[in-house]
Fold each of these.
Amino acid sequence: MTEALQFFLISWLDLKLLGLVALGTFAGIYVGAIPGLSVTMAVSILISFTFAWDVYPALCLMVGIYMGGVYGGSRTAILLNIPGAPSAIATALDGYPLAQKGQAGEAIGLSTVMSFVGGFIGIGVLAVAAPFVSEFALTFQPRDYMLLAILGILLVGSLSGESLLKGVFAGALGLLIGAVGLDPLTAEERFTFGMVELWGGISFIAVMIGLFGVSEALTQLHHIDKAAVKQTIGRIVPSWRAVGKYLPLSLQTSSIGVIIGALPGTGGDIAALMAYDHAKRVTKKPEVPFGEGAAEGLVAPETANNAAVGGAFIPMLTLGIPGDAVTAIIIGAMFIHGLNPGPMLMIEQPQMFWFITGALVLANIFMLIFGLTGIRLFTKIVEMPRAVLIPLILLLSIVGAYAVNNSITDVYWMLLFGAFGYLLKTYGYQVGPVILGVILSRLIDENWRRAIISEQEDLGRLFMGIFTSPLSLVLFGAVVFIFISQTPLWTGLRARFGTARARGDGV
Amino acid sequence: MKTLFTGALAALAFTAAPALAEYPEKEIQGIIQWGAGGSTDTVMRAVTPHAEEMLGGKVVMQNMTGGVGAIAVKFASAQDADGYTLLMGAENPLLYKVMGLGDIDYSSFVPVNVIARGVPILVANNDAPFDTLEEMVAYIQENPNEVKFGSTGPGGLPSVVTAMLQSEIELTVTAVPYDGDGPALTALQGGAIDVMPAVLGASIEAIKAGRIKPLALIDTQANEALPDVPPITEAYPAFETYLPWGPFFGVFVKEGTPDDVVAKLSEAYAAGVENADFQQLMDDRGFQVMNISGDEAQEFLDKWQSVTSWLVYDAGIAKASPEEFDIPRPE
């Protein structure tokens, strides 16, 4: 135990390592805040950059960037309605309305503290229950991923705003966009019209930047002469009472974050959206309705996406299986530095596990410090005149879209989806479900096919499988319950028999 | 920002040095065919810094993924044949023609160095009702279609190994496709699939930890990394005609690149591969270092293409006959 503590504290006691974690976290916050500059990209550039370094300093920098970057995405989501990263999409839903009311400072303060809480819960689970959680994550079969993706698709109900029908249309469109490109399982061309440029599919980041960034800039042109919202910066750090009040919710949403983060193939973006939906479901009486600036709508995604960071390290450190794209790159970096990440790492090199855990805690603390100190300056962004702000948004969007793959095609896609997003918004369609569809498209497509191929293309066997596995049964029950709860049938049943009876029907 | 900087630097180099200056007079672009963190990426990012020392220039590496690697190949072949664009790839392009994934393969390139080769291995879930290759064959023949083999899509390593097995043994299995060998090996540990033809390097840590069990090496001899695992030829000598076979990593430049540039690059990469740290990395990951260039590399590529194209064609997963592209049937 003392040995573990010793390894845990390596990065705390060495001034150089401490400085690198701080630097990484600081850089991560700004990388994360700019749409298109992603953590994945930053970490892969760092691999070449830190090649000649020792393994500890290299990891310190990467861990810092990862933690800071996941949090940084919320900045622009709150201030400009442009998520800096996919995992901040849900943050914009209630964060931006708060900024519009002049409460950007409070919103950022709350999101920072809650990211810190979520981050800690994620790391805590990593430290005490890593082997258990990774074994649990391994038990997910293709059919379970399929059910999880269907559960995700049902979030359309939470994201569609005034009209469910329009939301369903937008979600279906997203699924279609996600299907473009070479079929991931058979390499057949799908909706490519013979163009090689479309083989790789339409970049999801380009779609996101267009739908959120450019369409927002275009929408703002309507009131270009309106004075900017004056921000009142009062209390930035939320009171203990407020943190205490959201603690039960943040425990639940952090658990969602850890599990979704630990599952190979799903990451912070899906976790944050699911957590948002969960918050909407369990919060009976929000002080402010969801979508208009509910604090719960900010707490849920922010705790979940930072908890997913710790989650993603769980299968990576215990089994050598990456929990998401960033941990996949960190595994590559560890190989280059002469380590062999795999199930033996914990046994042969226990110091690595505790070292990374220690660096994560440190990064989480720095995230809180840097997050809370820059707020006054940041909120000035929203007070800028629109004639300056709108060109700036467009510029950032173009740079971001280009930077993802160094591809000018992505910039065209981004602009096209920007114009398209403007039309969607004008006619009352939400852009959230489109992005949801794109994110889940591959997950649902691949796993449905894997599941049915595994059962020799026999539906009966597939359902047998679902009903004989406790995990699948729970997920299936959740799908049915959430689906029914969104139909008029549910309201009718509730009126007649009460909640309990209807839940029984659902399962 | 980085691109801007590179551009400025390139412009500077261009104006400062006359056309006759010695190669490399500006930054070299390295196009990695697969994503960050994968085997190809790891190998290239590990060997290139050592090669740079010898080369006296900088190689800026970039991942260009998509289209089973075809997008990177297409991009590299569209650049000038001046040695300033390196294609860092794996074996896949040699199958593009027969798989209908485009008409550009390594025949439009010159090999700078074929760095290393992976050894395929058959691994199984610990709960699978067989412990050796013979037991597996017997079980599958008694229970056709019940055993699930992991796959990475037509033309991927698992599909070729499965085709190779099926060319000599009667095996009816269900192939479940995954995004790559990483996700498939994860699924193997979780029991979603029963058997996976994988690369030794990708599965070795899980084997050593006892999380999955090895059945046989798809090679002619045992491997130092796992001395107890029998080569397939021990039980089925007929496979000798196909072996040694395996995925590989190589650095290529476009055909038509000046000979002295190719020679200089080959020399640099040969020295890079010799580096002790890199050799250690290859050993740890279970790769066989090849370090060949010139005619030797070309011969290796031709044999690989001939054996594999005909295997996938005979197995019925190819879209076009190798004959159409003048790929001879192996003797």
Note: Confidence is low (pLDDT under 50) at residues 7-20 of chain B.
Amino acid sequence: MNDGTAAIASEKLAVGGEARLRIGAWRRFAIAALIVLAAALPFGLSNYQVFELTQVMIYAIAVLGLNILTGYNGQISLGHGGFFAAGGYTAAVLMHRYGVPYWATLPPAALVGFALGLLFGLPALRFEGPYLALVTLAMAVATPQTLKYFSWTGGQQGLNLAKPAPPPGLGIDRDRWLYLFVLVILLVAIRVAANLLNGRTGRAWMAIRDHPIAAAAMGVDTPRYKTLAFGTSTLFTAVAGALAAIVVGFVAPESFSLFLSISFLVGSAVGGIATIGGAIVGGFFIEFVPNFANDISDAAPWAIYGLAMLLFMYAMPRGVVGSLGPLAAWLRGRLRPAVAAGEISAASNNASSPQQTSQGRLE
Amino acid sequence: MHLFLQQVFSGLASGAIYASLALALVMIYRATDLVNFAQGEMAMFSTYIAWMLVNAAVPFWAAFALTLIVSFIGGMVIERVVVRPVENAPVLAAVVVTIGLLLIFNALAGWLFTYTLQEFPSPFPDRPLFGALMTTRDLGVIAVTLIMLALLFAFFRFTATGLAMRAAAQNPASARLCGIRVGRMLAIGWGLAAAIGATAGIMVAPILFLDPEMMSGVLLYAFTGALLGGITSPVGAVIGGLIVGVTENLVGTYLIASQLKLTVALILIVIVLAFRPNGLFGTAIVRRV
Amino acid sequence: MAPILHLHAVKAFYGAFEALHGIDVAVEDGGMTVLLGANGAGKTTTLRAVCGMVRSEGAIVFAGEALQRRSTEEIAAMGVAHVPEGRGTFVGLTVEENLRLGGYTRASKPHDAMARMYGYFPILADRRRQQAGALSGGEQQMLAIARALMMAPRLLVLDEPSFGLAPRVVEAIFAIIDRIRREQRVSVLLVEQNASLALELADHAYLIETGYVVASGSAKALADDPQIRRSYLGY
């Protein structure tokens, strides 16, 4: 795939089946403009806002990983906070104990995430639905407790890390440098995810999600692809965890509570589980909605947060991107009646979540 | 041996509490394929209602009965108002709604009743029984659970509404053709689950003390018990809950007596599930082609 | 006699897809009407429209009352008993529990009705404590019909009661349907692939093709129509 098609591919999944070559040029331009805007954004914002947006992007990468597993392969996980922690601690230990430069910790974190995901994915093959939820939940619960028991992880106190310095001569401060660094990783992550999901692997994942028996009958190696989905998913999330450790400059067991895992799942659902763009929406939700809730009510901010989750699910049960994507395609179809029919059907196909197929009652 | 039996019995008492909440989870799962993550917080909130009543000098068992009625109605209202809008949405949307509900109840309880630990009276005296093998309190908790189970069993077996609820859970389309209002049955199911949860909350509160976080651990054990029993089997949920209670206690006594006991208990149960992926009493999850 | 059920210009939809394009069907009070046609013609959809299981337009009137905008539950409680495609048996419940569910909408004690059903279908009495899922196909069909009759319906709606059954079993079931119809004074709307058998028992027949009624009349007239004989009766 060349430059343009990969970017379009990501949009295709985000918006839902919208990839016509004749509008490719326009689309390429829009995406380039968006990237430039994203790169320019921190220079007009306060340090704290830049930090918040960096967090948004980190969460987006983590949620993107979860979307690959839950949205595109139909396996639920309530334990991705554990893999986020694995990435974070890999980066932290390498930086803290071995003096590895921050940027060099990402590949090992990715590797650890991938390996753990494969290891976890193998037994997970035996579980479905609520059983997989429990097994991953157990992992989320076990993570902070386990991390406390080792000295090389810093025990209860965790590890403090030196904040990385920006490259000399660039003339930007640390927060903005880290923002750009994370932005680049996010773009790479989106590109890789889009490539995978549009290719053979992605088709196999979705076939297993929608028609597991038919997929197996057609010769898709289900165990291999399901395990691979797990590994790929946790790779993304572990990289996000490493970035979080680098940006925050601190890891401790309590940062990786069950609540973090739940937040990822909520972010994924709010954005749209079978989308790429939804991960970014999810990142915004995880980072900002609790703050908004705090502004609205000091007394019970989490009640407001919970209420926001309810309202989002009522308004857009397939998530923001999952619900608005087909709508946008439909509107475009209205404007250009010639392609309307094809686009809408493609859009609704793409936006369909695994739950649609597995929602039937179990009798 | 004495210590072992002692731990088994006290494990059965906490297991009975997990079993109750597990049963509530199973009831809702059977009807809608949904794990209600708010079940524990709903029970915690019910327990605060009982606590207020007891503090207002209402006799314990009257407060208990009143709380069950209020919880039943509350559960029905929650189903009709909060859960119904996502009835036909993807399951994950419904799961997120129950997580939202969990946060709302937790925050509301913290706001209304503060996060301070509150003492909660036990209706049972705490006296040793059978040469200190168990206490009257353990026995009381187990008895209450068994009575509740017997009542539920009779309800589902012998009453028209109970039968209609089973039919609605099993085959909603056919149930409608028999004139059964499936929506109402779902609401009753949530009401019953809330009342069962309230029982669990009231039974556990004297042991754990009452605070908004009281049920989070219990929910996890109950969920584990429900799955161990096979998520669709009420009898399995009860047995699963009891097994989890005993396992937790034995792990705490013999293996590791720290916070890690939760982790170890979970790992043990996950290993069991790896060999019985549909639980001990569950039927295989059937996927349509 | 006024019809007990009358469909006038009824359209039915699955989402945006229109499956019926305005059909007229009537069932006489105490009569038996059969819908014939190929698979996918819209016969089952017609039955579903009657019971409020699909979205429909036009007028559906049962015993003088409009059925549209009513829920399936309400329609059932009004006296329309529908034995759906695939029988709709509660396979995890016992035979007796299935029958009790049939009597759910009736306030009175269901024991007399149940005894009557065991009279029509003695085999069900023998198996009353067994799980319905353990019954043979023919027995399940009998159970489904018995469950529907437990509702004391004024209209019995049957969707292919012969489906998947051996010819002898089919004949036995149709004989019982005919007998019950006379004894219980219940009207019947029937969808059936076995056209010759259905036309023998029914008094009215409609031929449905791709969402339209293409022929209708007395069952005898349709049975004598050479075109229909060739296409559906095979002689």
Note: Chain B has one domain: 2-275.
Amino acid sequence: MATDIHRTVEAVWRIESPRLIAGLARMVRDVGLAEELAQDALVAALERWPESGVPDNPGAWLMTTAKHRAIDQLRRKKLIERKHEALAHEPEFAPADGGLELEAMLDDDIGDDLLRLIFTACHPVLSAESRAALTLRLMGGLTTDEIARAFLVPEPTIAQRIVRAKRTLADKQIPFEVPRGEERDERLASVLEVLYLIFNEGYAATSGDDWMRPELCSEAMRLGRVLTGLAPQEPEVLGLLALMEIQASRLRARTTSNGEPILLPDQDRSRWDPLLIRRGLAALERIEKLGGTTGPYALQAAIAACHARARTADATDWPRIAALYAALALVMPSPVVELNRAVAVAMASGPEAGLALVDALADEPLLRNYHLLPSVRGDLLSRLQRHDEARDEFERAASLARNTRERSFLQQRAAACADAARSQA
Amino acid sequence: MRFMMLMLPAGYAKATPDTRPDPDAVAKMMVYNKSLQQAGVLLALDGLHPASAGARVTTVDGKVKVNDGPFAEAKEVVGGYWMIDVSSRDEAIAWASRCPLAAGDTIEIRQVFEMADFPAEVQKAADGFQDPRQTAA
């Protein structure tokens, strides 16, 4: 029974903690302190609920408990009288019945607070990995242990990362606010970057034995959906969500039951998740209505949608994908985008055209240790029947890949090229 | 993990084909739906016409048999569903517990199968589909 309650409390925490921390942070103007207060309320719930039962409106219970502690804290810290009184006069939460209506009334307020919370957690003063950990902790309600397992990092490392991040925010006196104007755009870009980093960590784990850790993908999509609710007029937020949902629609088709990767053209498309594809395509339609189709995430989502719409690999609209990559290269110039464009051009106009673009990237310093450059080159060479060169490229790609599954896959391709070269000779 | 929350409204098995939900109940439900959406857990939802407007298709001795609704034998029928993506069964229960239910309404929570839930031999049977050479283009 006690463990049942314990699990219920954990579930309630997962649902309520972001709103709780966000509301408290507005009061105390310190996300670190807000999180501690919320944690105290959680501890109180774990003590009280096994005897009293779970209250009808658990979120309101946690908020009231945490608020009382916040007021005690502020009193102890002898903050100025004015602030203290303002807090004491804030309306208390209503009892359980009518809780939903009240929640709806508070939604606008709490929405602003949640937006402030995610902007603060993703503040550029923090390193990318700290932003990701703090976001999962504050906005996702994940424990440090869960975050550590997802990132394959020891728990103390994550705990320390979070403590340091909170201290940095306090030391640098980062205000708990959503910036305006140009700064808002920059900071929003940072938020999107963090969500996509979390997603990609799950989608194509850079190290370790598991090729993907789907829980991280789910979490990133959940946060993306929250953000589309908080900032519904931002096409790039929709673009990122559409991109993540369409990519995640392939999770089930990306590996064999043994965990070996299956590349896009070889995937069984009947295994793609139609619900996520439908959601992604619907988001793209909304982006069009908002007039935001030229943003980097919107373009990447549009590219992913080309694959999602194709019923077979052969039916893929490669000329459109190549055009979308060209548009992406304009708004987000990068050698990785150029490499992807080369792949699309090769599919649309033949391997020679693609190889010419890949060869132009040969001296690109940013790609020097990027396994996908030799991997793509190997693929194009093998299609041109230049198997010896292809084998060398795949071997080089395998030596650069950090993921064990990917490495063995590249080694297999190198071996296949060696066989093809022998039968050619 | 994905769960379907199936709404089994009280008395819906006997509802006439023209039965429509009460506006107050819908307004309350919209608040709830919005909370699911804002928490980022809602993937899809739909409400279903009464069973009396539906039909049941079965086979009897290898022959297809169609029964028009209402279905005398059914005590409870589905009135709608939510598809949610949450981190645990407990979280799905916590969400269902927040739904503004009328007296006698029931929500049934069912987890959606993932490939990993199947035993190895089932996964293997499904594996054949992954080979593009075995699927018609």
Note: The CA atoms of residues 6 and 108 of chain B lie 5 Å apart.
Amino acid sequence: MLYAMLCYDSEDVVCAWSQEKNDAVMADLGAVQQRLAAQGRLGPVARLMPTTAATTIRKGREAMVIDGPFAETKEQLLGFFIVDCASLDEAIETAKELGDACGSGGSFEVRPVMLFNPVAPTL
Amino acid sequence: MTDRAWIDAALTAARPQAVSALLRYFRDLDAAEEAFQDACLRALRTWPENGPPRDPVAWLIFVGRNAAFDARRRVSRQAPMPDEELISDREDAEAAMVERLDDADYRDGVLRLLFICCHPDLPAPQQIALALRIVSGLTVAEIARAFLVGESAMEQRITRAKAKVAAADVPFEAPGPVERAERLGAVLLMIYLLFNEGYSASSGEAPLRAPLCEEAIRLGRLLLRLFPAEPEAMGLVALMLLQHARAAARFDEAGEIVLLDQQDRTRWNGPLISEGINLIGKAVRHRRPGPYQAQAAIAATHARAVRAEDTDWAEIDLLYGLLERLQPSPVVTLNRAVAVSKLKGPRAALEMIAPLEERLAGYFYFFGVKGALHMELGEEAPAREAFGRAIALARTAAEAAHIRSHLDRLQGAEERRA
């Protein structure tokens, strides 16, 4: 069974990290990832940009574009897509297409990826 | 187990919100700072043992407020202080406080705290120093180091600024939309000045002053999280990210300035650039252009060019035209002239800047640009004259050295001919 491990933390605190602290955390995480990759268990890994870079598309007949991250508590995270887009406008259009295909309500949060390691070849 | 680096980062992150809430409570800046300081000391004692609270900001506000009460009680009745172990993050009182302080309160509180530092009677350096002390929580020694002045001079500067701010009365009521927009504009400008204070450093000073740029970016992001739909806030953060992304390429090993078209673009910070480009894309969708957005869009156009010769100068010319309309200034026209020289040649650019000379007679870059344009046309005498005036106006050794390297090239060309 594949499991998605979703990382939650206080962005205020992470933004206040010194470069050294950030590098140390990334190195520690890197060590765990290497172990998982060696065991052939690691899929794609992504670090997202801060929520200030996020845009949310509220699904519906007239999709609504809202600045900022998804902030409702009535809906839950059910899945995600990683799509290569030339611009934010294209990303928003793509999210709308995906939203139309889902049909139901809910939202897509569009957040640029800061760091991406594609799937380890052994998986 | 909570490590010290995490606690320090958490306290720094919580400071703007916690101090602004305490200020709202005590209506006195010194009292609010003192209460926050007390709360931090308690956090350093109890968090390593008990682990961090679920909501550090609420914990600090709650504990800070109580510590201030205790201090007053101690003065009046010499009663013993309660054990801080008893203050747990699961207490109902704290949860109630979190509920009372909703996002809108935090938002206007933090904006107010930043706005206090932007008092119009305070010269820009004092505004920035005050914000670094009050909002960012840097020590006087750290601020003095970044401003390259002595600690006692900085202490005086901050004390004087605080006195002026205390005398001014910024109302505590939630601001109306017009007032909020005005406050936001003043605060954005102060953050921009803070960034420039760090960015305009010469190479020797750059390592000392880079933290100013990072702090400006942190405050900008904080503001953007509080006001997520403000295109000019997006523009400012995008501009700072895009400028800061080039930091490593701006000076060579000898400490000399490397101009944009000469920079090693592989040394630019890719993630910061993509974040900046994304943010300006977000801002533009609002169709409410402003000076920060225009400048960020110019920086983004430069950042998109893999090589200097790929730069889309027509786009940059257009964007400077927009900036001239939004914020007319001879400096903007001077910058536009550089784009024009790439599009239509140095002669057209010289014609464009000729009317600016009177107003920019004391401006280093004007004569630097003028000299470079004449040099491109092979007009040595006027080039030499302009460079001479630029050197006289240089503010840093690196600026003067940069112009001297142009003069050396002119000299070299002359000698080769002779």
Note: Residues 12 and 137 of chain B are 7 Å apart (CA to CA).
